[in-house]
Amino acid sequence: MKVPSVKYKRIVLKLSGEAREKLRGQLARIIEFVKQLQTIDTAGYEPRAAAGGFEQALRTDETKPCLPREEVLGAAPQRKKEFFGVPPVIEADEL
């Protein structure tokens, strides 16, 4: 399995040397895992769209009126101007 080189190069060029090596190791492990999966004999098994074999029941989208912005933001525990205030999920050094 080959990683598309153009997309890979664009990503890699933006990374520092340490991050680049970390990514290289992660990609190598992913590719090895995919190779292991490809060795599994799946002959005789029907493809499934869902793990439980259930049909996905979708309904048609229906538009409904929204709550007023001020009412919603007023109920938020934290507010930053016109948005909800939330704590950071990813630290800057993890990007």
Describe the protein in words.
- There is one protein chain.
- Helix content is 39%, strand content 4%.
- It has 95 residues and is mostly helical.
- The protein has a domain at 1-40.
- It has a two-stranded antiparallel ribbon.
- The mean pLDDT is 81.
Distance between the termini: 26 Å
- Put simply, the count of helices is 3
* Rounded radius of gyration (Å): 23 Å
Q: Order of strands in the sheet with the most strands? A: 1-2
Give the ordered list of helices and strands.
HHHEE
Mean pLDDT: 81
Q: Which term fits the overall shape? A: flat
Helix content: 25-40%
User: Tally of extended strands?
Assistant: 2
What does the main sheet amount to? 2 strands, antiparallel
Strand percent estimate = under 5%
The assigned structural class equals: mainly alpha
Low-confidence stretches: none
Outline of this structure?
The protein has 95 residues and is mostly helical.
Secondary structure blueprint with pairings:
Elements: H1 5-13, H2 17-38, H3 69-74, E1 79-80, E2 83-84
Antiparallel strand pairs: 1-2
